[in-house]
Amino acid sequence: MRFSSLWALQRSIVALVLMFGLLSGLPAAAQTSDQPSGKIDWGLWIDGDGCMHWYADGGFEGYMVPRRNPKTGRAVCLKRHACFVESSDSLFGADGVTLSRAGEADLRAFFAEEDAQAYTIYAHSDGAGGKAAAERLTQAQASAVAGVAKASGAQVVEAIGGGARYPKAAKGSAANRRVELVCYQ
Predict the structure, then answer these.
(1) Mean pLDDT of all residues in the chain?
(2) Segment 142-185, tens digit of pLDDT
C-alpha cells in the first residue's frame, strides 16, 4: 500500500511540473531572442564524407539540403584522400602543442600549394601519459594545424584529436605521433 501511494505522489508531482512548464510560456532554451535578425547566413557545408550541403540560417531556424547534380539527382560528393602525413615531432615544439617555426612554415607552404576544396585534420599520439592526456594533446595539435589552415584561407571540415586510438605501429612508437590531413577534391 505504501509503495502505490508513493508512486501516485510521484506521478502527481510530475504532472504538476509538466503543466506548469507548458502553461508558463517560457521560450525554448535555444531561442535567446524573440526578434529576427533580418540577416540570413547562406553557405555550403561539407560533411565528413565529402558530400556538399547548402544551408541557410536566419537565426530562429536553419535549413540544409544536400547539393544534388541537376542531371542525375545524386548527391555531389568530393573525392577524399590522405594528402599530408607528417610526424608530430617535426611539426611541434618541445611542449608538443605549439607549432615550431619550421612546422608552421611547412604547413603554410602546403596549404598555399594544395588545391583541395576542404580538409579534415587528424592528430594522433603514441599514448604516452595516458588516454585522457593523449586526447587533450592531439585535440590541441589538430586545432593548431586548423588555425594555420584557416589563416591560409583553407576550409576546415573538422579538426579531430584521435589520441592513441589509431596506431600505425606498436604502442609507444614514435611512428604513432603524427598529423594527417584528408583532402576533399
Answers:
(1) 82
(2) 999 999 999 999 999 899 998 888 888 888 788 889 999 999 98
- Angle subtended at Cα 88 by Cα 177 and Cα 78, rounded to the nearest 5 degrees: 90
**Where would I find the H helices in the chain?**
2-23, 88-91, 101-113, 131-151
Shared domain for 179 and 95, answered yes or no, is yes
- 169 domain-assigned: yes
Entry pTM: 0.68
Domain hosting 93: range is 80-184
Residue 44, φ and ψ in degrees, nearest 5: -125, 125
What are the distances in angstroms from CA 88 to CA 92, 98, 171? 6, 11, 16
Same domain, 55 and 86: no
Distance CA 84, CA 181 (A): 5
- For 41-61, the pLDDT digits (tens) are 888 888 878 899 999 988 778
| Tens digits of residue pLDDT in 65-82 | 999 999 999 999 989 899
Give bridge partners of residue 66 from the DSSP assignment: 53
Q: How far apart are CA 170 and CA 132, in angstroms?
A: 19
Residues 6+ apart with CB under 8 A from 35: none
